[in-house]
Amino acid sequence: MFNRIPGTKDILPAEISSWQTLESTARSVFTDYNYLEIRTPVIENASLFNRTLGPATEIVQKQMFLIHNQEDIYALRPEGTASIVRSYLENSLDKTAGFVKLYYIGPMFRFERPQKGRLRQFHHIGAEAIGSLSASLDVEIISLADRILKNCKISGYRIKLNSLGCPKDKQAFSQGLKNALQQQLPKLCPDCQNRSKHNVLRILDCKNEACREILKTLELQQEYLCPDCQNHFAAVKAGLSSLGIAFELDYRLVRGLDYYNQTVFEISHSGLGSQDALGAGGRYNNLVQELGGPQLGAIGFAFGVERVLLAADKGLGQAAAKKLAYLIPLGASAQSAGLKILDTLRKSGIRADMDYANKSLKGAMRSANDAQAEFVLILGEDELRKNTIAVKDMKNSTQKEVNLDNLIEELKC
Ligand code: HAM
Questions:
Q1: 329 neighbors 395 (Cβ within 8 angstroms)
Q2: Cβ of 306 below 6 Å from ligand 1
Q3: Is ligand 1 within 6 A of the CB of residue 268?
Q4: Tally of helices (H runs) and strands (E runs) in the chain
């Protein structure tokens, strides 16, 4: 017997209705905000991620699923943004469409140590808006993420917000942090010592208790933001407030990927334990140019589907299922006549199934019950002769004989 790979998950029929509800709610919100769906491959050249996420980031250093073939190294995509910018440029959307608002739903892969809310194959529901620097777009993206959660009736989450500024500001912030940590460097964990050389801002994300204690002593402010970035951030905050979207400023929020600048945000949920980020995003105004395109503003976010579902602790419920009609054929000729009846019902949009196991009436009734059928249709030799069928209403246990010509009407009312 084979088992699934650690950190992957079978999504069984009992769980699927929550997935479908989340996906359909998200699709409907994306449509309301005028975002169009895009689907890109799950494998890409590994160099795409080295280039965009940053060679020193944890994802690139430790978490990529790599496929070494004879010519190239491919990677299972660890996130969607890089692929979408690649696709935007490869398909010349910068020339034909310019400003685009895209959304995506699909699996992502990261070689992480599996734990609650942390998988090796997980799923993103995300959006990317490419081609604008407007602060109103930052507000739209954050309000869109908030709307998806609200429409799923998820509460208890916090939106943390920060601005990393433009690359110059980010550089100044990194340098300031490096200076502030100079004396403490030997006391930081080995990972942070490494980060201090390659990606000092990531020290702010460290989960190590000793590092956290040291970081608590630092006074972090937004003194590094240039006037333009200050104005942009002020407009984002004002826009969110005008829509009544609650947020908290968090100057420690730096995000783990190199492509971010200006606005970054994370949506966390206290019910999730250590992996508490439901989703996150931010601006990446230099990424399109990094990949060979024009200088264009862009912003996006992604939810981790599994974590959103964990936050909706009682599940997201199901869309009202269609009533099921369950046919029990008694005998061989009823079997073949039954197939035709099923076909007619299904063509008329009635959800229908039948007993294929030739069970006794009692056994087949039990199966109908297990399948939560609303109606059981019993077809025996007698009924066949009279062109009728016995229709049992399972809710009120009544049974009547119905002419086959009237069956659809009978089941529809
Ligand atoms: P990220 O923060 O790496 O951002 O991932 C977004 C979300 O995916 C996280 O907040 C979390 O909910 C979920 N997630 C990440 N890793 C795992 C995992 N191993 N298991 C389960 N869930 C996970 C991005 O990927 C960016 N591309 C988001 C973005 C889009 N920024 C701009 N546009």
A1: no
A2: yes
A3: no
A4: 16, 16
The C-alpha atoms of residue 78 and residue 53 are separated, in whole angstroms, by 10
Q: Phi first, then psi: what are they for 55, rounded to 5°?
A: -65, -25
Contacts for 181-187: CB closer than 8 Å, 24+ residues apart: 181/214, 181/218, 184/214, 187/214
Q: What is the pLDDT along the chain (413 residues), one digit of tens a residue?
A: 999 999 999 999 989 999 999 999 999 999 999 999 999 999 999 999 999 998 888 899 899 999 998 889 999 999 999 999 999 999 999 888 889 999 999 999 999 999 999 999 999 999 999 999 999 999 999 999 999 999 999 999 999 999 999 999 999 999 988 888 888 888 999 889 888 888 889 898 888 888 988 888 887 766 899 999 999 999 999 999 999 999 999 998 998 888 999 999 999 999 898 899 999 999 999 999 999 999 999 999 999 999 999 999 777 876 667 899 999 999 999 999 999 999 999 999 999 999 998 899 999 999 999 999 999 999 999 999 999 999 999 999 999 999 999 999 999 87
Quote the CA–CA distance of 250 and 247 in Å, as a whole number: 9
For helices 81-90 and 46-53, give the axis angle rounded to 10 degrees.
110
Q: How many CA atoms lie within 13 A of 298 on its CB side?
A: 31
Helix (H) or strand (E) holding 354: strand 351-354
Amino acid, res. 192: C
Identify the CA nearest to 123 among candidates 11, 238, 33.
11
Given ligand 1 and candidates 122, 158, 269, 288, which is best to mutate, with the most ligand atoms within 8 Å of its CB? 122
Q: Tell me if 123 CB under 6 Å of ligand 1.
A: no
CA–CA gap between residue 364 and residue 330 (Å, rounded)? 10
Secondary structure of 204-268 in HEC code, one letter for each residue: HHCCCHHHHHHHHCCCCCCCCCCHHHHHHHHHHHHHHHHCCCCCEECCCCCCCCCCCEEEEEEEE
Choice from 5, 49, 63, 79 to test ligand 1 binding pocket (greatest atom count within 8 A of CB): 79
Atom 23 (ligand 1): residue with closest C-alpha?
304
Q: Are 230 and 171 in contact (CB under 8 A)?
A: no
Whose Cα sits closest to atom 2 in ligand 1? 280
